[in-house]
Amino acid sequence: MNAEQDPPQSSDDTSRLPAERPQSPARKTFVLKRQKDVSAPTFRIRYADELNAAQLAVVENIEGPVLVIAGAGTGKTRTLTYRVARMIEMGIPPGHILLLTFTRKAAQEMLRRASMLVGPRAEQVEGGTFHSFANRTLRHHAQRLGYNPSFNILDQGDCEDVVNLLRTRLGLEAKKRRFPRKQTIVSMISSSINRMTPLREIVEAEYPQYRNEIEEIESLARAYQDYKRAHDLMDYDDLLVNMVMLLEKHPDVRERLADMHRFIMVDEYQDTNKLQHEIVHRLSGTRRNVMVVGDDSQSIYSFRGANFRNIMDFPEDFPGTTVITLEENYRSTQPILTFTNEVLRSAAEKYEKHLFTRRVGGDLPMIVSTMNETLQSQFVVQRVLELREEGVELNDMAVLFRSSFHSFDLEIELNKANIPYIKMGGFKFIETAHVKDLVAHLRVLHNMRDVVSWNRILLLLEGVGPRGAQRVIDAIIDGSITLSHDGIERARGLGNQAVARLFETLGALVDEHIPLPEKVDLLVGYYRPIMKRKYDDYTKRLKDIEVFAEIAGRYRSLNSFLSDMALEPPNESVTDIGESGSEDEKLVLSTIHSAKGLEWSSVFLIWALDGFFPAARSVGSHESIEEERRLMYVATTRAKDRLAISYPVNIYDRDSGMVLSKPSRFIETIPEEIAERWVVAEE
DNA sequence: CTTTCAGACCTTTTT
DNA sequence: GGTCTGAAAG
Fold it and tell me: A170 FRET partner, CA 20 to 30 A, in A202, A321, A404, A584?
């Protein structure tokens, strides 16, 4: 099928043709001319030479719904890049293209590569995550939904704080029976929202132990929603919910947005949830120029409400969909590909794909059993050093694991061996208490009504507890304390030295003409003594604060800084972030989730031990086991040339109280001719 | 009211 | 090994 000849439905769907719709003249002629003349020899890029047949089909199908099933390593990024380039060459204004990706980095990378093909115009394509797109859009249209445009965004920790506060207020402490902890409550609510399923059903299906508490949980959830709305706060889910609301309840806005984003591309579609699907569906409107790419076999975010039904059902949601499958793998050698296919062989439901590669030859994957945890780490260290000797750069090797803490022991051994590494995923810099404290100060400057942040920064003060904080917050909300001169006087009148100093500091910073870096410096000066009093590892944390100031220094506006910190925080974990730039060559340690979309020459997968991977708590249900299997697939498909999977035996697991010694069920049955088995024992 | 302290609890994955 | 909660001391 070929967009140049006769795009399907172009005759009956007139709304797509700009000529029918009065517009600014310049824009109109621009688009019209190109659409009728697509195959004219104005393309400077010779797409057919650069892409294989399936990839070319993706690039040439610009109009109408397109579903691309892209197996691992099949050149998805390349294809998307060329598609963007092609659209721009066709004369589609870059601003009309919306590229939704899983991380902002992925979008930036694609646009950077596209701009190398067709020039800097490509950078004007609107790209980013669903959340960041929703954020930008909602800042423009907040009033329509009754929000202040300077709403602040709550991360998960903030949400938990709110729930905690409201729970106390409603008198729902874990007094009598067992009431779920705040974390659990937040994830219940989030599940309910992202799956568009009533809370009651979520609790009954997934948290049956709290069945008797449903009434209370529901009322807490309601209080939570009201609270956020009353104070111009949105959590991650609200960004999506409100985006859907905006599109649903305000047709004029929907029209305008659909007009602005005529061509929509969504990457990693297998990891979108129902809300995100709604956004795509409504935004594409009658034009239906939607292309989604994904691999159902790599769907690994169901805990976040992602539903791979989205990708399975796409052709039904968008009748007339062109389905294109990318099957040539350019990444891995045949032995690795054979191995990954074997991992996937018994998956329950999937689009059939037959990945093949021309990279014949290469080592068989290794499955390595070690006596204990330390030997596993030492095995990795030794192999890394050997490969390094053979000329493989550290950058081109990665160690992957199911859960963040699985790398702890390895990190010790890496330090001993002086191997520099960077760790992705797990606990983040931005989530450390002292960094959150600083951010909270900036957030109240951005939005005085951010009571969550007020609460946080007031509780830092000596002599202020929950009660005192609430008194001050009440005064802020009713307007008797402000950051103006007499507002500060009033704060001083409260009789607490520390509170007075807080307001003096903030009062001096509220001036919008002060550049952000300067604000942060002043704030750090204010915060340092507080930190010294509160944390005994003060000097270690001080380093983070310096890094924080440095990051803030790159931003001009408080708004964009806060949005980025909430939506796209640095993914490196705490220890690494300060060292960036000190050494270029580093071994990558990463959770499998954070390794999505990446590739390395050599990949180690550690802790492939039943109970760790699959995780013990996933063993219960069929669906979660299937997801773990896909996770194994994602992990193993990251490898280009070498793959080693290891597991220690005889590990005592506190959770189950058992000694675990079985290799992961996903690799246990792999035949001898597909993977070599090794044992590492003490000499 | 706030702070401190001791015991209970449980740990995926991320926007 | 860390966070979270509740009770007692300041």
Answer: A202
Q: Encode pLDDT of A168-203 as tens digits.
A: 777 765 554 567 888 888 988 998 998 888 988 888
What the block records as the tokens of A505 is 């500091």
Contact indicator for A632, A339 with CB cutoff of 8 Å: no
- Give the pLDDT band of residue A348 (cuts 50, 70, 90): low
Summarised one tens digit per residue, pLDDT across range A62-100 is 999 999 999 999 999 999 999 999 999 999 999 999 999
Q: Is the CB of A164 under 7 A from strand C?
A: yes
Estimate in Å the CA A557 to C1' B10 gap, whole number: 40
Alpha-carbon gap, residue A19 to A79, rounded angstroms: 30
Q: Which nucleotide is nearest to A183 (CA to C1')?
A: C4
Q: CA gyration radius for chain A?
A: 27
Pairing of strands A233-235, A658-660: unpaired
Token digits for A560? 């964009």
In angstroms, how far is B3 C1' from A532 CA? 17
Q: How far apart are the first and last CA of chain A?
A: 62
CA A281 to chain centroid, in Å, comes to 21
Measure, in angstroms, how far nucleotide B2 C1' is from residue A467 CA.
Answer: 9
- Three-state secondary structure of A474-542: HHHHCCCCCCCHHHHHHHHCCCCHHHHHHHHHHHHHCCCCCCHHHHHHHHHHHHHHHHHHHCCCHHHHH
Q: What is the DSSP letter of A92?
A: -
Q: Give A350-374 pLDDT, tens digit per residue.
A: 677 788 999 888 899 999 999 888 8
d(CA A122, CA A107): 11
How far apart CA A31 and CA A18 sit, in angstroms, is: 7
DSSP symbols for A638-655: TEEEEEEEEEESSEEETT
Instruction: Give residue A629's pLDDT band: very low, low, confident or very high (50, 70, 90).
Output: very high
pLDDT tens profile A26-39: 333 444 444 544 45
Q: What is the mean pLDDT of residues A527-551?
A: 82
Q: What is the dihedral of CA A11, A15, A21, A25, to 10 degrees?
A: -70
Question: Which class for A550: exposed (0-12), middle (13-18), buried (19 or more C-beta within 10 A)?
Answer: middle
Name beta bridge partners: A97.
A263
Q: Could you tell me which residues come within 8 angstroms of residue A212 by beta carbon, excluding any fewer than 6 positions away? A: A177
Q: Is the Cβ–Cβ distance between A556 and A365 less than 8 Å? A: no
* A583 has pLDDT over 70: no
A644 φ/ψ angles, rounded to the nearest 5 degrees? -130, 125
Token pair of A128, please?
A: 């980013």
**Residue A384 region, left (φ>0) first, then alpha (ψ -120 to 50), else beta?**
alpha
Cβ–Cβ contacts within 10 Å for residue A677, how many?
13
The pLDDT of residue A614 is: 87
Q: In angstroms, rounded to a whole number, what is the distance separating the alpha carbons of residues A128 and A332?
A: 28
| CA A187, chain centre distance (Å) | 16
Which positions in strand C are less than 7 Å from the protein's CB atoms? 4-6
